[in-house]
Write a structure and sequence with these properties.
alpha+beta, Glutamine Phosphoribosylpyrophosphate, subunit 1, domain 1, seven-stranded mixed sheet, four-stranded antiparallel sheet, binds asparagine
Length: 297
């Protein structure tokens, strides 16, 4: 099994070593799995459970102080599942997989996704705020009131990786994984979104072709400024470059170059192609990845 995972594209993290250790653990968990789809789910579970990443526990907070999680998963035969805007759901990737495996749909949202998760035994009602998230939120002096007041308040802060000048930004640490066993490919991405988005905002992560994609040619996971990633369907773009003959590294490089030219924004992508080529590219300051090729499976 070949596996690559990412821990988000953004600024240079303060403690890269400890994050790298979690990424390596996640990649190993993936490589020990039976199938590529198990591999991406298992790898992402590790990252969702770590408060160091913006997915599951430690996810970004929205304008009403609630962490809502999003995820998408896809396999090379174009089976796909996604779930979004879920308060209290640590393992968003498992809800996405549930949508793929158990429903005739591709995408289920908000309280209905949470209810579906609960009905199938996926844990809900988890407090996703880490200690740091709590402290940061307490400092922010959010307004009382509805969407208009919240929108006014976040207008200058949304998309800033360091809201209000605080350090330890959690804006960019979305997680993703791609796996290939020599025959089948799977890709998945999971996130808490971006700091101080309007309550209910959903980014690229659960949108097929934007935050994740898989087809016979390649599997892809993206991270970065979600609105901009969705505008150019970044993950599909990488896969298309592979379909036209590039290997995964050349395809991720080209897609990120195009993304920068088209949007002026920052993002990163990882990919594995059907010849076993692995690619990773980003135009932010940093994107940590870990990769494993286990010959035993
Ligand atoms: N950190 C991220 O990668 C954020 C994610 N792409 C989003 O916009 O929701």
């Amino acid at each position: 099994m070949q596996v690559i995972v990412h821990g988000g594209a953004g600024t240079v993290p303060k403690e890269p070593e400890s994050r790298q250790t979690v990424l390596e653990t996640a990649a190993n968990a993936g490589a020990e799995s039976e199938t590529p789809v198990d591999a991406v789910e298992n790898a992402i579970h590790v990252l969702e459970s770590s408060p160091r990443f913006n997915a599951g526990v430690g996810g970004a907070i929205q304008s009403d102080g609630v962490v809502r999680t999003d995820a998408g998963i896809m396999t090379d035969d174009r089976r796909v599942g996604a779930a979004c805007s879920m308060p209290g759901v640590e393992h968003a990737v498992s809800v996405a997989r549930l949508v793929m495996d158990e429903t005739p749909h591709g995408f289920v949202s908000s309280e209905h996704a949470v209810a579906l998760a609960e009905a199938y035994g996926i844990e809900t009602g988890v407090d996703l705020r880490s200690k740091r998230t709590r402290e940061k939120w307490a400092d922010l002096e959010a307004p009382d009131g509805g969407p208009k007041a919240q929108l006014e308040w976040i207008r200058d802060q949304y998309g800033q990786s360091d809201p209000d000048g605080r350090d330890d930004p959690k804006d960019h640490d979305t997680v993703g994984a791609v796996a290939f066993d020599g025959e089948r490919i799977a890709a998945a991405t999971s996130t808490g979104g971006r700091w101080l988005a309007l309550a209910g905002r959903v980014g690229d992560v659960p949108q097929v072709g934007s935050g994740f994609y898989a087809c016979p040619a390649a599997g892809v996971s993206a991270t970065g400024a979600g609105e901009d990633i969705a505008r150019v369907t970044l993950s599909r773009r990488v896969a298309r470059h592979v379909e036209r003959g590039l290997d995964a590294q050349a395809a991720t490089d080209l897609a990120i170059e195009e993304f920068g030219e088209l949007t002026g924004s920052s993002a990163g992508v990882i990919a594995i192609d059907s010849r076993g080529g692995i690619g990773a590219a980003y135009n932010s300051d940093a994107m940590q990845t870990a990769r494993v090729s286990a010959s035993s499976r």
